[in-house]
TrEMBL record:
Family named by the database record: Belongs to the relA/spoT family.
NCBIfam families per the UniProt record, alphabetical: spoT_relA
Protein name, per record: RelA/SpoT family protein
One GO term describing the cellular component: plasma membrane
Domain TGS: 403-464
Gene Ontology biological process terms in this record: guanosine tetraphosphate metabolic process
Pathway where this protein functions: Purine metabolism
HD domain span: 61-160
A Pfam cross-reference name: ACT_4
Function text: In eubacteria ppGpp (guanosine 3'-diphosphate 5'-diphosphate) is a mediator of the stringent response that coordinates a variety of cellular activities in response to changes in nutritional abundance.
PANTHER family named among the record's database cross-references: GTP PYROPHOSPHOKINASE, GUANOSINE-3',5'-BIS DIPHOSPHATE 3'-PYROPHOSPHOHYDROLASE
């Protein structure tokens, strides 16, 4: 359907100016003499160069750069240079304006930042497998000027907020990248508010049903919750002021994404998530009183409510690496419910909300080198050209999200490591050579193995031996990206030497069998032995795992190999897959842009059933695999291999059944299992594949694998199972 677009240009012009003035108001606090003129110049340039462009929604394109600049100013607290760059972030990429033009008008610094933004703008948009490599490039610009990444985050946030007009497969891809990379990056830079919003928006597109379900549940109990918070806060507020502290005490809801994470992690229904909100006490303290005031407030709270001794977190004495400072405790509320309380000063709060930029503003206040240290680490990791880009990305991503522990050296220096770090991680943190030769450690003067998991506050002394060298299984021992990449490059070097040796041996062997040594034959051999690369082949030969008799065996079956050949990426297209199909009645699922009927298999990681929101993923050797969009592996697949994602849609059917799992919990009762199986087998005529039941002190927990037609069928079954006496919860699980 086509709709005529009627545009009132005069009204649009007014709206553009209105938005521009709102931007100026948002940047007011950082404006200095001459800044306003500079911003106006950037605005005029952006307006002129984007004048004929519109967004997918039909709105003038200029709304986007204005909005990005507004986020940069208001939500990240960035200054004039960044606002100028945000306004111009798309002009070099999308219009005739060149970097030279920018440099002439706005100077070197601005041109450099826009250059960085332009370079990374194509990072995820290309149909190539180079996303990981590009992400690495993006981090290189981060090492140059963090503002590039901060503006990029503002850009991404605005795109996520306005994604409704995008086609579904683009929404999925953009949302996946966001949850996979941008949210962790925002987290690492301490932009908690932006991180939470990015996560919620991603979930809105990747898992719309769950998102709506939790949003609805939150809304239902809103008034009740507000009342509880009011009653909880009142006495704190009173005593805090009595004791002469100036403070703002309020309740703050947790994000939908974090609530969902808790439900999944603890396998509990929404009703049992206790921390749907946190209480915040924000103190207005003089710099010299900050710490004392926080503890004073802590003392007031814990006099009123009993604290859980395991849940005290002191990031005031030792701030997190991203600059976060706060005192967290969990106390028992008046209705026997645990409540998290966060205590911090206004300065700390601004850092918590706006991250790095605000941090920078208060530079004079000590211990703020966490971010500098981190950027230094990023530089180190990037400087290792040996590292495989995808591996690097995975390691790096993991390090973005982890919490930190603080470890002491024998001389009392403080080293920050991610939670779960081992003695070996610590060794690599000290120095690559110390890590490579590490044979053990003394933790608090006690001898421990290299795999020892360090605890916050441990004092560690590393023991080395010149005879030691990195081993393959060390990769399972370490968690830091630095240690991983150092171990990998050392193993790689060793492997390279072995492979070189193996290559010579293989050449001799082939000669004796009168086979020519060439690339083609070597590739055929690796394929025959099911090895991922020719290097692996050489290594296997060198280690004696492939001998002369094995190669003879290959010779006798060579004919067959010729007909197959290894899979090449060119086959990774819908059409490539299609040509392989001989007939088949796969009319349940329609795949690709033109919704063709193509063979597929259902991914075992998420067991999709008809009705689920799904996508197809083109695999290297197993054709098209169908995943649910909320599959735990989906974000990683879509973010790294967007070009291999194809659209997939269910066709309605009632003949075929699909395997799925249900977790049933309840109060153990005579006949409970009978009643459950009666509903499943007799009432619903559903076939069960397996059932396992666990009862513990009167609590019943069952896992049932069943065959259903589609999600509607499944939902009806769940509804009826919930009616069985004693059953308190029924949830679907994946694998
Ligand atoms: Mn943009």
């Amino acid at each position: 359907m086509k709709t005529e677009l009627v545009i009132d240009l005069e009204a649009e012009k007014q709206e553009i100016l209105k938005r521009y003035r709102a931007l100026l108001r948002a940047s007011k606090s950082t404006l200095q003499k001459g800044d306003k003129k500079e911003i106006r110049k950037a605005f005029d340039m952006a307006l002129e160069s984007h004048k004929d462009m519109r967004r997918k929604s039909g709105e003038p394109y200029i709304y986007h750069p204005i909005a990005v600049a507004q986020i940069a100013a208001e939500e990240i607290g960035l200054g004039t240079t960044s606002i100028v760059c945000a306004l111009l972030h798309d002009v070099v990429e999308d219009t005739d304006i060149t970097l030279e033009d920018i440099e002439r008008e706005f100077g070197k610094k601005t041109a450099k930042i826009i250059d960085g933004l332009t370079k990374i703008s194509g990072v995820f948009d290309t149909n190539s497998s180079l996303q990981a490599e590009n992400f690495r490039k993006m981090l290189l610009t981060l090492a140059d000027d963090v503002r590039v990444i901060l503006i990029k985050l503002a850009d991404r946030l605005h795109n996520m907020r306005t994604m409704d007009f995008m086609p579904r497969h683009k929404q999925l891809k953009i949302a996946s990248e966001t949850i996979y990379l941008y949210a962790p990056l925002a987290h690492r830079l301490g932009l908690y508010a932006i991180k939470s919003e990015l996560e919620d928006l991603s979930m809105k597109y990747l898992d719309p049903d769950t998102y709506k379900f939790i949003a609805k549940k939150l809304n239902e109990k809103k008034a009740e919750r507000a009342l509880f918070i009011k009653k909880f806060v009142e006495p704190i507020d009173e005593i805090v002021h009595e004791q002469g502290l100036v403070a703002d005490v309020y309740g703050r809801p947790k994000s939908i994404h974090s609530i969902w994470n808790k439900m999944k992690k603890k396998n509990i229904p929404f009703e049992e998530v206790y921390d749907l909100f946190a209480i915040r006490i924000i103190l207005d303290s003089a710099p010299e009183n900050e710490k004392a005031d926080c503890w004073k407030a802590y003392s007031i709270v814990t006099d009123l409510y009993r604290p859980n001794p395991d849940r005290l977190r002191d990031w005031v004495s030792s701030p997190k690496g991203n600059g976060y400072e706060s005192l967290h405790t969990t106390v028992m509320g008046p209705r026997g419910q645990w409540v998290e309380v966060q205590i911090r000063t206004q300065r700390m709060n601004e850092i918590a909300e706006k991250g790095f930029a605000a941090h920078w503003k208060y530079k004079e206040s000590s211990n703020d080198n966490g971010l500098d240290q981190w950027i230094q680490k990023v530089r180190e990791m990037l400087s290792n050209p040996e590292a495989n880009a995808l591996d690097f990305l995975d390691d790096f991503k993991m390090n973005l999200f982890s919490d930190e522990i603080f470890i002491f050296t024998p001389k009392g220096a403080l080293i920050q490591l991610p939670l779960g770090a081992t003695a070996l991680d610590f060794a690599f943190e000290i120095h690559t050579d110390v890590g490579a030769t590490c044979i053990g450690a003394k933790v608090n003067h006690k001898l421990v193995p290299i795999s020892y998991k360090l605890q916050n506050g441990d004092q560690v002394e590393i023991i080395t031996s010149s005879k030691q060298s990195p081993k393959e299984d060390w990769l399972n021992v370490v968690v830091t990206a630095k240690a991983k990449s150092k171990i990998k490059s050392s193993l790689k070097e060793e492997k390279r030497k072995i492979a070189e040796n193996g290559k010579e041996i293989l050449e001799r062997k082939l000669k004796s069998l009168k086979i020519t040594y060439n690339t083609d034959n070597i590739q055929k051999l690796s394929y025959f032995f099911k090895l991922p690369s020719t290097q692996e082949l050489f290594v296997n030969v060198a280690l004696g795992k492939i001998e002369l008799k094995d190669i003879r065996e290959y010779l006798s079956s060579e004919k067959e190999v010729e007909n197959r050949g290894p899979e090449r990426p060119e086959n990774l297209t819908v059409d490539g897959i299609k040509s392989k199909i001989k007939g088949g009645e796969s009319d349940i699922l329609l795949i690709g842009e033109d919704m063709q009927r193509i063979d597929y298999t259902l991914a075992p990681c998420c067991n999709p059933i008809p009705g689920d929101d799904v996508f197809g993923f083109i695999t290297v050797s197993e054709g098209i695999k169908i995943h649910r969009t909320n599959c735990p592996n989906a974000a990683q697949l879509m973010a790294n291999y967007g070009y291999r994602v194809v659209k997939a849609k269910w066709n309605r059917q009632k003949e075929l059944t699909f395997l799925t799992g249900l977790k049933i919990v309840g109060i153990d009762d005579v006949g409970l299992i009978n009643n459950i199986t009666r509903v499943i087998s007799t009432d619903f005529k559903v076939n069960m594949r397996s059932i396992t039941v666990d009862t513990n002190e009167g609590i019943f927990e069952g896992s049932i694998m069943i065959f259903v037609n589609d999600t509607e069928h499944l939902e009806n079954l769940i509804k009826n199972l919930l009616k069985v006496r004693g059953v308190t919860g029924v949830t679907r699980f994946d694998a």
